């Protein structure tokens, strides 16, 4: 059996699902838009998740449960007691351990049929290209603009979609940077690093734990859509979600002439 052209234009043979996989992914298989072919795509996919924290936790949990075949977790931090209020992939007895190890063990218990690769490094402009190489989708769960810019540039260069999320107090954001020539990138949206006082990190401003779960789950949904070729990605659109009044706004943005990453 064969499936459609992959992201690089090649044709890949579709893997046969085992009896256990048919049972595990039964609720996917009965969706006409997914089915056996779609589940095989998920099982063949490789997704890089930057950060095993507030966003990376729900992202990795749902991608593992969905059967994404290879998850690459990138984080150089260790689990702290203050993380547990929102970073649901880590248990209390993991405090002090590397986040990639803690998360990998949790994901293995959720779905032992997938592979989890651990990269205990901080993503930088120097290693970003190596880390995203070979990915079908990259998910950004980082918490600083230096990492976001480096990741944006590496994904544009590699031709890999980037699903970017961000959090602050009771609010969250989501956008997707596609590798299409006419698609705007993260630097088009934020050409200059915002004032740090206007974008404090969660250890400074605080964060309602469940907000991370909402945005991370939306990132996981967007990632599954991209792998399966379903719906419309958040290309050129920034979603703003406010938990306090349960409102959603959308800001459209365009490719910026002279952008250093995609201009």
From TrEMBL:
Catalytic reaction list: [molybdopterin-synthase sulfur-carrier protein]-C-terminal Gly-Gly + ATP + H(+) = [molybdopterin-synthase sulfur-carrier protein]-C-terminal Gly-Gly-AMP + diphosphate
Single Gene Ontology MF annotation: thiosulfate-cyanide sulfurtransferase activity
Keywords from the UniProt entry: ATP-binding, Nucleotide-binding, Nucleotidyltransferase, Transferase
UniProt-listed Enzyme Commission number(s): 2.7.7.80
GO cellular component term of the entry, any: cytosol
Record domain THIF-type NAD/FAD binding fold: where: 25-260
Mitochondrion recorded as keyword: no
InterPro entries assigned: ThiF/MoeB/HesA, ThiF_NAD_FAD-bd, Ubiquitin-activating_enz
Protein task: Catalyzes the adenylation by ATP of the carboxyl group of the C-terminal glycine of sulfur carrier protein MoaD.
Subunit structure: Homodimer. Forms a stable heterotetrameric complex of 2 MoeB and 2 MoaD during adenylation of MoaD.
Family of this protein: Belongs to the HesA/MoeB/ThiF family.
Name of this protein: Molybdopterin-synthase adenylyltransferase
Lineage: Bacteria, Pseudomonadati, Pseudomonadota, Alphaproteobacteria, Rhodospirillales
């Amino acid at each position: 059996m064969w499936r459609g052209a992959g992201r690089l234009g090649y044709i890949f043979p579709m893997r046969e699902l085992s009896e256990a996989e048919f049972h595990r992914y039964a609720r996917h298989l009965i969706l006409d838009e997914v089915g056996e072919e779609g589940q095989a795509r998920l099982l063949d996919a490789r997704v890089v998740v930057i950060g095993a924290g507030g966003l990376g936790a729900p992202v990795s949990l749902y991608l593992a449960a969905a059967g994404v075949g290879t998850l690459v977790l990138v984080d150089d931090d260790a689990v702290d007691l203050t993380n547990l209020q929102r970073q649901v992939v880590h248990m209390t007895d993991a405090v002090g351990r590397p986040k990639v190890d803690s998360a990998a063990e949790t994901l293995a218990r959720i779905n032992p049929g997938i592979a989890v690769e651990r990269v205990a490094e901080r993503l930088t402009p120097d290693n970003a290209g190596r880390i995203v190489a070979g990915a079908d989708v990259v998910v950004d769960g980082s918490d600083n603009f230096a990492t976001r810019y480096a990741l944006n540039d590496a994904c544009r260069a590699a031709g890999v979609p980037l699903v970017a999320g961000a959090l602050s107090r009771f609010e969250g954001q989501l956008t997707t940077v596609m590798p299409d020539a006419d698609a705007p990138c993260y630097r088009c949206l934020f050409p200059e690093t915002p004032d740090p006082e206007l974008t404090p990190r969660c250890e400074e401003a605080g964060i309602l734990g469940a907000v991370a779960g909402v945005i991370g789950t939306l990132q996981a949904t967007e990632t599954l859509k991209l792998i399966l070729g379903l719906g419309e990605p958040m290309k050129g659109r920034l979603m703003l979600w406010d938990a306090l009044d349960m409102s959603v706004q959308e800001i459209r943005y365009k490719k910026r002439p002279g952008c250093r990453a995609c201009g």
